[in-house]
């Protein structure tokens, strides 16, 4: 493997090239080729949900990675909300950014960031690709949504800084993302190249505000976005743009830390060029650490190294640029302690405020009279589960009340609430329309995410409200439309912590006395 991947690069240059690369792999054990490359200087590894089986297993894995290369970055996409890798089997025990933004207590946000950091440190990670610093100004954004702290610059900036401070106080490097802002898009950059054609004044005053705050808070890295911003660079997406990374991020904003690319296997980066050429262009642009993706292989890494070495040999990429990038990565990775045996023995540390559940529930946006439709019922007859395709960043993670059914967690509280365990769950998706609404046992909860973005869900809601307006409650656990037309209850997140708060809210409503007939009329169809 070593001889093949070396190509025409000199030994020192080859080591520097390897140091700029951050591949992923499938499964709970590091493959032999990866361990070998770590020993030769590979920059690190990005861990995903498929790499996590238990705290003890993950700690053993990260220990092996760091033994192969003590300077290795062990990164993970743990945002502490809907996007979770540590808790991919059950959902994260944290509120998520949108809920934290609605609670609007920066001290709480800082404490959640620290709690996430402590859990990561316990299993030997060194970096998390978080917080998400995007301003979700477009409610139809298919990939950011509740990962954002909000829709306006000032609160997002404050909470971004607090989360950075919290997670880094636990010894985990933050990586504020997705520079220079992925919030005003209606396209998922995993699948295509979004275009954000904003005036420069708006870009500087809105999109860049959270990144300035993250830099001021000392974030050790910033992750780029694969979006095209014609007012800054009409030809190259941010990840591949020297104008955006060198002039704007390094020059205007003065960032001196590590610039990490978002995954280069995403269509927004490599769809037109392929991953090896995208890697070359990202280094030319100013990226220091290249997140390759997941499920990578030895031949893929060989091809990338050879492409970068060839670019240096031809003069397209200065050797000094590679050397500088590698030096930044090595400096980033030093000073991190590995997991102790004691840390890895039990469950992950999750130290959260005792009143967190109540504060999460208080952040929900609840239409007047919506919960009255449940009062006195004592039970839920039917839950209509709206199934949509999760974006790649979130992945297949149990969400909302269905996470409580799929994976009970006695360590976090009581067993599944009776109302949830006893309700009939009816699945609804784009290919399975809602059957006769009148045939459903009431009361009915319809639960989904980003309901306004899915025509089949909008149609089902209209049919339910027309057929039985007195006992239907619609629940959006994503980012709802601005007018809340399809959300009687908007939770702004679907993590396990949000699900538990929602479950307690429903149980309380079911136990409440039924209101007088005049106090609650039927809900008008949206």
Overall 3D form:
globular
**Strand tally:** 14
Class derived from helix and strand content: alpha/beta
Helix content: 25-40%
- The proportion of strand residues reads 5-15%
Mean pLDDT: 90
Number of helices: 20
Q: Please state the CA-atom Rg, rounded to the nearest Å.
A: 24 Å
Low-confidence runs of at least 5 consecutive residues: 1-9, 518-526
As laid out across the biggest beta sheet, the strand order is 9-14-13-12-10-11
Distance between the termini: 61 Å
Q: What is the makeup of the main sheet? A: 6 strands, mixed
Overall description:
- The strands form three sheets. This protein has a six-stranded mixed β-sheet, with helices on one face. A five-stranded parallel β-sheet has the order 1-8-7-6-5.
- It is globular, with a radius of gyration of 24 Å.
- 39% of the residues lie in helices and 10% in strands.
- The model is unreliable at 1-9 and 518-526 (pLDDT under 50).
- It is of the alpha/beta class.
- It contains 20 helices and 14 strands.
């Amino acid at each position: 493997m070593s001889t093949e991947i070396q190509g025409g690069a000199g030994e020192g240059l080859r080591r520097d090239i390897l140091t700029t690369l951050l591949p992923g792999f499938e499964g709970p054990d590091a493959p032999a080729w990866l361990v070998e490359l770590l020993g030769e200087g590979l920059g690190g590894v990005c861990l995903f949900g498929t790499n996590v089986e238990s705290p003890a297993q993950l700690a053993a894995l990260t220990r092996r990675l760091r033994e192969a290369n003590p300077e290795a970055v062990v990164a993970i996409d743990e945002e502490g909300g809907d996007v979770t890798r540590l808790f991919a089997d059950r959902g994260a025990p944290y509120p998520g950014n949108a809920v934290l933004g609605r609670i609007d207590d920066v001290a709480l946000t800082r404490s959640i960031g620290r709690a996430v950091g402590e859990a990561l440190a316990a299993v030997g990670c060194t970096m998390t690709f978080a917080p998400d610093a995007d301003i979700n100004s477009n409610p139809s954004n298919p990939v950011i949504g509740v990962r954002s702290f909000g829709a306006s610059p000032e609160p997002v900036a404050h909470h971004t800084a607090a989360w950075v401070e919290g997670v880094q106080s636990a010894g985990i490097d933050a990586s504020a993302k997705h520079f220079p802002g992925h919030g005003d898009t209606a396209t998922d950059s995993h699948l295509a190249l979004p275009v954000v054609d904003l005036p420069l004044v708006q870009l500087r005053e809105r999109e860049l505000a959270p990144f300035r705050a993250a830099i001021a808070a000392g974030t050790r890295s910033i992750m780029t976005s694969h979006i095209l911003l014609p007012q800054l660079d009409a030809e190259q997406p941010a990840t591949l743009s020297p104008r955006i990374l060198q002039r704007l991020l390094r020059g205007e904003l003065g960032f001196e830390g590590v610039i990490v690319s978002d995954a280069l296997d995403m269509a927004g980066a490599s769809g037109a060029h392929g991953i090896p050429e995208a890697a070359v262009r990202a280094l030319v642009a100013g990226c220091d650490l290249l997140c390759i993706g997941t499920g990578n292989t030895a031949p893929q890494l060989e091809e990338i190294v050879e492409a970068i070495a060839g670019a240096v040999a031809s003069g397209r990429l200065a050797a000094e640029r590679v050397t500088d990038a590698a030096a930044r990565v090595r400096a980033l990775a030093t000073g991190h302690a590995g997991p102790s045996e004691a840390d890895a023995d039990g469950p992950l540390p999750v130290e959260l405020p005792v009143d967190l559940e109540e504060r999460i529930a208080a952040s929900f946006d609840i239409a007047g009279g919506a919960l009255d439709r449940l009062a006195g019922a004592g039970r839920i007859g039917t839950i209509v589960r709206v199934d949509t395709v999760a974006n790649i960043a979130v992945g297949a993670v149990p969400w909302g009340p269905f996470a409580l059914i799929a994976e009970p967690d006695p360590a976090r509280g009581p067993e599944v609430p009776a109302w949830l365990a006893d309700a009939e769950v009816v699945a609804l998706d784009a290919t399975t329309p809602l059957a006769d609404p009148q045939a459903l046992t009431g009361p009915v909860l319809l639960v989904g995410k980003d309901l306004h973005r899915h025509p089949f869900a909008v149609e089902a809601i209209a049919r339910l409200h027309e057929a039985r307006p007195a006992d239907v409650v619609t629940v959006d656990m994503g980012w709802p439309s601005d007018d809340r037309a399809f959300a009687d209850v908007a939770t702004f997140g679907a993590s396990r912590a949000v699900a538990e708060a929602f479950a307690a809210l429903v149980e309380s409503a079911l136990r409440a006395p039924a209101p007088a007939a005049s106090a609650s009329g039927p809900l008008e169809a949206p």
